[in-house]
Task: structure prediction
Amino acid sequence: MPPTAFRVVPFFLVAACSSPAREAGTRPDDVRLPPPLARDRSDAVVSSGVQPAAQSAARVIAFGDERAVEELPRFFPETTYDARVPNPDRLLRQPLGTFTAHHHEILGALRAIAAAAPDRVRVVPFGHTHEGRELVQVIIASPENLRRIDAIRADMAKLADPRGSDAAAIDAIVARTPAIAWLGYSIHGDETSGTDASLAVAYHLAAGTSEDVTAILRDAVVVIDPCQNPDGRERILGLFEQGSGYVADLDASSMRRGRWPYGRGNHYLFDMNRDWMWGTQPETRARWAAIHAWHPQLLVDVHEMGSGDTFLFYPATDPLTPHFPEFTRKWWRSFGDDQAATFDQHGWSYYTREWADSWYPGYTDSWGTFQGAVGILYEQARYAGGAVRRPSGEIATYREAVKRQATGSLANVTTLARNRSAILRDYVAAKQRNVAADAPGNDRAFVLLPGRQPDRERDLVDALVTQGVEVFRAQAGWKASEAETTGGAREEREIPAGAIVVPARQPLSPLVLAFLAFDPRYDEAALKRERKELERKGRSKAYDVSAWSPAHTYDLDALWCAMPAVELAPVTAMPAQPAGVVALTDASAPVYGWIVDGEADAAVAFAAHALESGLVVQMSDEPFRAAGRSFARGSLLMRRVENGPDVAQKVAQAAASSGVQAFASGTARSADEGPDLGGQHFTLLERPRVALLSNSPVDTDAFGHVWHLLDARIGVPCSLIDAQGFGYADMRRYNVLVVPDGGGDVLRENAEDVRTWVRGGGTLITFGGASETLCDPELKLSSVRQRSAVLDDLGAYRRAVKREREAGTTAIDEVALWEGRPPPKSSGAEPDESKESKEPKDLKGDEAKEHDRFASTFSPQGVILRGEVNLDPWITVGCRAELPVFQEGRGVLMSLPPARTAVRLAAPERVRLSGLLWPEARARLADSAWLTVERQGSGQVILFASSPVFRGWFRGTERLLANAVVYGPGAGADLPRPR
Ligand SMILES: [Zn+2]
Result:
């Protein structure tokens, strides 16, 4: 997506023309919305009950009020500053921290500081957001170090990869090279104080003339990423400003602090603090390259938490990801102790180790740690740009929050500079262990067997290489004994030449081992802690998902095995798939039609683009042979006679825009026993007219993930329907409605209209909680039920599962059949109760309900389970018989015919693929429905038990949603008859 496609219209430049900002003294070239409360409202503050002592701290200062600025407490009163460098308190329209500065104001101030201190500061752009805003890094170093900054980077690269440097060379680098700090602020856009603090830190280091600053700059280079999420920040600032009044509002829960969709995510509402291993967003990918060029030893990620809280920093709490580097664990103590001592001087409250575990490796600080740095997280109480009355009654101001973030940052870079030599030595020692043959795990390799889904394989390899991981292609095949498969087996495997090999032994060894592991497991202590918390308090201590294995989420063929002794060639990029039209050999012969293979994900994008351009597209329900090759089920056919004279041109355009090949066929006759191209195995598709439910109460993440898939990845037009005004939407415009988690109540409130729309031919797609809502019989939209509602009938569901699994495989005893003997015993009988099940079959009624409620306490926080795929229905084209799926939450869906279960979770002993699944959860989830498709009149209802597009990583199940949206209106619903 080119960044310019989203360039923001700066509407507030217009809106501000008549604003009080001008009267309040804003420079004419600096027209912006006024800060909340553009004049001193101390009277109002008193009348709102604030103690007089707190007035000066709580009041708002207008631009140009020099006396008030002078009276403000300094951030760092002990430090002396070079007066030639402009102080942010006077650079901005109000003093720093007395309001929330916009992204462009922060960048403007940073550039003004850099212009005044060019020997210490450089501002270097490194990327753009979806909405076109600039990402910059601010490099601050002593004049001597800044002059030789490229040499410092080159030295640091040698420490990060010590292969080829002898001990003397390393000693020389350690002796002459400053340590590197990367300080990243406010990746969650509505946790605003970090970005304002970045300006305080930059000014302090750029202008400071006393020993505290010169000591830092002598031994450290500080790189500031001032605003990690400009799009999110600007979104929330608009809400802050629109919600502000003239009277100080000290209520932390006031709506002026934001509303849907808040500022946490980026443009597509992705949480970028979970995106670091994946790089689904342009901000993450730009940052990968920027950080990788530095090889920092310290990486700080600055956040905010609840307004009644205090301040959290590291050491983190357990569990840590397996292979978590010892380097980080050791130095967390020093950084934490020094930061604590600094906070103690101010009497500030803080804590460490109470929450925010480091199990999931895709957080900013975890990713920094796996790159080799000491990754540190801050969480400062959130005051949302104003003042807040804390639970203890005191008034806390935003400027104090900014000061704490800045003070923490400077404490950390001081620790880094003071310990420069020891940290660099430990850093390089860790890297030497990473490339040592005898380090634990280093004799193994992750092996990707290409061919399953080339686009996904290319994207995964690209993500690894761009993060700095070394990837190779095996030049010969080999036999791997004890190969660990994604399904959990250990077996001997023949691996062909061309396999992709990611050795554990490399400078980023911990990242390879942690990220690519199939089934990382909590240790016994962590399991006991978590179990105790669940049993005693009914809640989990886990901070995020327990599983992430990309081989599973991308549904690829991969193995972990011993490092092969075959020749390897480095891979820097996997080739793109060929795209375009493959014409008939005889160019003068007539074309019957053009065919696009249905296996690759890009086929869905092709269909979307082709339908949008007006092409008539048919989809096959069986594999077939034509044009000299095989085509998978779900392949797409554009017949010449059904389309207009520009059909060839339109096919070529859609093939190019979606990256697929379209093969011309001169005949409708099958080349083998498969279907001919002119018959009933082809279904006419219908152009999807998609509505995506948006706005509160829809979950922002779930909404954003779908929006990103449909808009940025597939490229299908998609209308965002307002959940707050759903009753006013003219649903006749749409034939697909996607309702993410959180939107269930909107369906409930509008059940009759939704029913009419579905029965008239609509395709309704829901997930998570919205699917659970549809299970309510009163809505009359689905025969699927929540498990908790059918506890007395579980036997019937078990029998249905057994029949479903045996369907088409029953042995036929011909003699018995013709002579009327009884059927074989197993058929239709209830399967044995699993040993795993903790729910005895004889529990009924209230007892069963009570047990189910208790068992649901142990529901997964985010695991990868084995789905069994029904390969008959159209919705599963492009899938294989088994598919790893994401599961979270308490809901469990139970299905019987007439609902078709397209994906069912596997039996208890096979269902867990990766992540923590307690026996109670396994018993509830095993054999339940994960994806159902059900006809309702002329339309259909499609229920996903959990999100198929979680965070943009579940490329395997994402395919099911893409199929549902693009193929659903034609393949699963009745088309209106032409007249
Ligand atoms: Zn945060």
Q: What stands out?
A: The radius of gyration is 30 Å.
